[in-house]
Amino acid sequence: MIKAISKTCFHTFNAVPFFKKRVSHSLAAVSAITLITLSPLGLTPPAHSKTVDLDKVVAIVDDDVVMESELKSQMRQVLGQLKQRASLPPEEVLREQVLEHLIVKRLQLAMAYRVGMDISSSEVEQTIARMQQTNGLSADQFTQQLSQDGLTIGGLKQQIREEMLVQRVQQARVNSRIQVSEQEVDNFLSSEEGKFWLSPQYQLGHILIPFSGNGLGQDLANTQVQAQSIYNSLTKGENFRELAVAHSGGQNALQGGDLGWRKGVELPELFSEQLTSMEAGDVSKPFKSGAGIHILKVYDKRGSSETVIRQSKVRHILLKPSEILSEAQAKQQLMDFRQQVLNGGDFGELAKEHSEDIGSMLGGGDLGWSLPGKFVPEFEQTMEATAIGEMSEPFRSQFGWHLLMVDDRRDENMTETVIRNQAVNLLRNRRFSEELEIWLQEIRSQAYVDIKM
């Protein structure tokens, strides 16, 4: 069985199947359940005549339908996965749950199609490449395994595309319902939890030279001499782990003194004080506690460095293909705009007149200074490849065809901004699952659904 690498919410029983290809059918053409071949005279058909099962509608969902064949296919996939995980519910219950899942999926896909969302071929190909790598299969082996699972490459691509569309609809619709205030961010960052979340992490090695007696007088002096000798060896390049195994009296001595990754706030205050000025690769001078003399080594450190980000100030013109504007026409129109600007035309005026990005068109297409993750991958990649004062060639994203111009670049210390953005994302993610359930219930209750089973 091919392992899926991306997940879409399957709320009823926590299964994560790929989605089957979306099929539109004429209701009149699929209303019959079976077709019996009879002679013109209405006589009993000959013995070799067979009843031929036709596909049928199992649910009408607004202007769309769910077909029996799709329900059966989804049932097979779910059963194949649930058999490996838990006892199965009664088949009729499972059938109702799978159908409900397909209905809600239909509603979400319809939203994506209405606003022109799209998944590029490159995104789908990258997903398939990751699946091949995850499963350790060559392209030919992957295709063979798909065939054994009853799938084709074409069918898999459509399933991936629909799964990604559903995820993007959920992200767009649900995140817009979750508002995180500046005060909430401030409260979180000043809380004990926030301080823990913000504190750096250290990958540590530890050597403890324990006192043999009360840690006073000669006992203290002897222990200090031994610890200083080990420290001198470390400064000359000897291996920390080997010295820990040979000399440390700590609990992790036989593991080379490795403490793994530890948050600064999780460590004894005495350790934290030593670590504040240490960077990756540093070894502390010997320091005393009630148990003995300690030496720390920082193998690595994360979560505390300044964040300097290369930002681009960018403008763009967006054209959305439609029934009256084909893909080729949209691309050609942007090529014409590009030539006009090269001939002395004003990019901003063209954006005001022609761009379909309502958020930036009135400002001449100005998107301000970029932040990591602010734009979709295709946009970010093109932006980074375009020099200051230059225009890109027209390019496609899930939103349509773009032409962008880079006006300026700068390196900005974004440490505070990044921290606050991360806090916003954390607080938003905590609410996402609950808000997603509420939203799904809302769109289900507002839809016209007629179940034919």
TrEMBL record:
Annotated function:
Chaperone involved in the correct folding and assembly of outer membrane proteins. Recognizes specific patterns of aromatic residues and the orientation of their side chains, which are found more frequently in integral outer membrane proteins. May act in both early periplasmic and late outer membrane-associated steps of protein maturation.
Q: Pinpoint the PpiC domain residues.
A: 199-300, 309-408
Which UniProt keywords are given for this protein, alphabetically ordered?
Answer: Chaperone, Isomerase, Periplasm, Repeat, Rotamase, Signal
Q: What is this protein called?
A: Chaperone SurA
Q: Pfam families this protein is in?
A: Rotamase, SurA_N
Q: Where in the cell is it found?
A: Periplasm
Database matches in InterPro entries:
OMP_Chaperone_SurA, PPIase_dom_sf, PPIase_PpiC, PPIase_PpiC_CS, PPIase_SurA, SurA_N, Trigger_fact/SurA_dom_sf
What is the predominant subcellular site recorded for this chain? periplasm
Q: Which GO terms describe its molecular function?
A: peptide binding; peptidyl-prolyl cis-trans isomerase activity; unfolded protein binding
Give the domain section of the comments.
Answer: The PPIase activity resides only in the second parvulin domain. The N-terminal region and the C-terminal tail are necessary and sufficient for the chaperone activity of SurA. The PPIase activity is dispensable for SurA to function as a chaperone. The N-terminal region and the C-terminal tail are also required for porin recognition.
- From which organism does this entry originate? Marinibactrum halimedae
GO CC term (a single one): outer membrane-bounded periplasmic space
Query: What's its EC?
Result: 5.2.1.8
Give the domain of life: Bacteria
Example of a GO biological process term? Gram-negative-bacterium-type cell outer membrane assembly
Q: Which reaction does it catalyse?
A: [protein]-peptidylproline (omega=180) = [protein]-peptidylproline (omega=0)
